[in-house]
Amino acid sequence: MSALSIEVPFPVFQDKDGQPLDSGYVWIGVADLNPQTNPVSVYFDSALTVPATQPLRTLNGYISSTGSPAQVYIDGNNFSILVQDSKGSMIYNFPQGTGIEPIPNNASGIVYDPAGTGAVPTTVQTKLRETVSVKDFGAVGDGVTNDTDAFVAATNYINSQGGGTLEIPYGTYVVGQQLATSPYTKTDPLNFLNCTLPVVVRGNGSKLMPPTGMKYGVVDGVTCDAIQLIHPVSCSSIVISDLELDGRVSTVVVGTGVFQRQGDGIVALLCDSVTVSNVYSHHHCRDGIMIGTAVDSSTTTIYPVSITNSRFEYNGRQGFSFIGGNNLTVTNCYFGHTGKNGFVSMAPGAGVDIESEYGLIRNAVFSNCKVFDNAGAGLVADSGDSADCTFYDCDFIGTTTWSCWTKKPGFKYYGCNFIGAAVNMSVDYVSSFGTPTAFYSCGFHMNPSLSPSGVIYGVRMSFDTSPYMEFYNCEFTAVDGYALPFASSEYYTNCVFTQTGTPYSIGYLNGSFFARNDITTTGTLSGVTSYGFTYINTVLQQAAFPVATYNGLGLTNNTSAVQRIVASSSATGWATSVGGANVGDIVIDYSPTAGGFIGSVCVAAGTPGTWKTFGAISA
């Protein structure tokens, strides 16, 4: 219960005996002057449009207008007032009266005075209009009423202002309309276009979802797109937070020819900055989220994109399509079950698809993300000009197909886990050490117990199509019925390999092993070339060319060629066997003799190149 103060709506004038003044006279004039001889204009309305004749007459204590109590107004602040009884005798005369400004019928007449030095006052109406609510335009949010018109009106207002903040109060909003006849039309609820000021969409935990019975693909001879719930285009900044976007694919009428047709949670294109946080986007016909900016090779412009604490699952084509941009950060996000909603599934079916379409892709960073159980490869990068993407502490788990497929240069992984077979993890046959796919302290596990579903794809990591990858301090495991990697020309430094139970087949490691590597296996191995200390079942293997220092430490000469320090009985023989020598290569003679030399250094590249001895040994 709350208390309410009852105020008298009209001033009450009293006679000399304290009774309500009846048939009295009231004069209002200029302050400090006689109001009878210096009257001011008086009105019966706050807009000052209905004049009142002086003297004003009273009825039962109230100023009267056509027999009813009335309020009176003047254009000013101070005034003088004379009150007389019905016989013209003075009751009181007050030279300095002050009135009360009328309460406005809207917030435009109320001042908002912000705190802080230098703050500029404005009206309450202006301040409130800095934030727009969909309920200002009639949205209901009861999960039944179609609120499309309200959302469109709110969006149009934001667009007309060049940006602004849109509040979506907590509720469930049915949005989106479709006319599935020829010609086909649809209405998306939130289409922000060409906003030069920031656009902020605050969801407050609300859910947006299309109505039941939307059509997708070719249905009854008409080609239909599904709804795109949030679709900013060419905006300077878009911020989306605290929303559930439910595509309701189970209620959609799915026809033929659905490939690549619209039907998404968020599609942000050509925006300078995109920020998404605390969004759950699921069960859409196509993508949970798609982001693309036009970056070409001639520009260093940064278009920051940030996605945090969000979940994208059970969408038809992708959890996340990144189709162009420079400077993407994705943190604490989940991408799962793409193509597994039971109604719409289309290629590539990835949890995350890094595919340059709108512009090149550079400098994407994923941290603490999980990619699980997608119909296509969990992470895909196999098209367009994409490079230099980095992943920290991410899990890639393949259950029905590859856990990862990133065939682009400059991809780096730190502390990541690959559970289930991965494939095509490097650029086609690129031997340059400037752009290899590299893994640092990562785990590669063919072990179903590490999958949340207890299921993994494949029998081993398929690195045979992924040459020249670099592995530092990584762990490889395979349990009974699975095998260690099938590799091709990889480089391993300080790695551990463990095969337990009965292996599926031979471990075709096929690589060069540097520093110390430990291999424990119940099966057989192929292609292990040791350039350091490699132990197989605790037995140290004979090194082919024991390497003291490797390119992984960054030793390059002034032509950026790799410098190697190896041990061999013949410098020219070694150079010929490895396909040529670089300037600065050093061969230590592992069979030194008295009067001979410690080794040789390459002074001119070639096969075998030009070599000069150094370090004379006493006879």
Structure description:
The protein has 619 residues and is mainly beta. It has four domains: 25-98, Phage P22 tailspike-like, N-terminal domain (Tailspike Protein, Chain); 177-374, Pectate Lyase C-like (3 Solenoid), CATH 2.160.20; 387-544; 554-616, no CATH class. It contains three helices and 53 strands. The chain has a 34-stranded mixed beta sheet that branches. A six-stranded antiparallel beta sheet has the order 6-5-4-1-7-8, with no helix packed on it. It has a four-stranded mixed beta sheet with strand order 50-51-52-53, with helices on one face. Helix 3 links the parallel strand 50 (565-568) and strand 51. The protein is elongated and about 145 Å long. The model is unreliable at 429-433 and 545-560 (pLDDT under 50).
Overall geometry: elongated
Beta content comes to: 35-45%
From the 3D structure, determine the CATH topology of the largest domain: Pectate Lyase C-like
Low-pLDDT residue intervals, each spanning 5 or more residues: 429-433, 545-560
Number of domains: 4
Number of strands: 53
The description of the largest β-sheet is: 34 strands, mixed
Contiguous helical run count: 3
Which structural class matches the secondary elements? Answer: mainly beta
- What is the annotated CATH architecture of the largest domain? 3 Solenoid
